Amino acid sequence: MTIDKSHDLFRFELEATDGAARVGTFYTPHGPIHTPCFAPVGTQATVKTVTPHELEELGAELILANTYHLYLRPGAELIARMGGLHKFMSWDHPILTDSGGFQVFSLAHMRQVDDDGVTFRSHIDGSEHRFTPELAMHIQELLGADIIMALDECTDPKDRAYNEMALRRTHAWAERCKAAQQRQDQALFGIVQGGIFPDLRAESARFLAALDFPGYAIGGLSVGETKAEMYATLDALMPLMPADRPRYLMGVGTPEDILESVARGVDLFDCVLPTRVARNGGLLTRHGRINLRNTRFAEDPSPIEPGCTCYTCQHFSRAYLRHLFKAGEVLALRLATIHNLHFMLRLMEEIRFHIRAGTFPQFKEEFLATYSLPNQTIRHAQMERRRAARGWDNRGQG
Amino acid sequence: MTIDKSHDLFRFELEATDGAARVGTFYTPHGPIHTPCFAPVGTQATVKTVTPHELEELGAELILANTYHLYLRPGAELIARMGGLHKFMSWDHPILTDSGGFQVFSLAHMRQVDDDGVTFRSHIDGSEHRFTPELAMHIQELLGADIIMALDECTDPKDRAYNEMALRRTHAWAERCKAAQQRQDQALFGIVQGGIFPDLRAESARFLAALDFPGYAIGGLSVGETKAEMYATLDALMPLMPADRPRYLMGVGTPEDILESVARGVDLFDCVLPTRVARNGGLLTRHGRINLRNTRFAEDPSPIEPGCTCYTCQHFSRAYLRHLFKAGEVLALRLATIHNLHFMLRLMEEIRFHIRAGTFPQFKEEFLATYSLPNQTIRHAQMERRRAARGWDNRGQG
Question: pTM surpassing 0.90?
Answer without folding.
Answer: yes
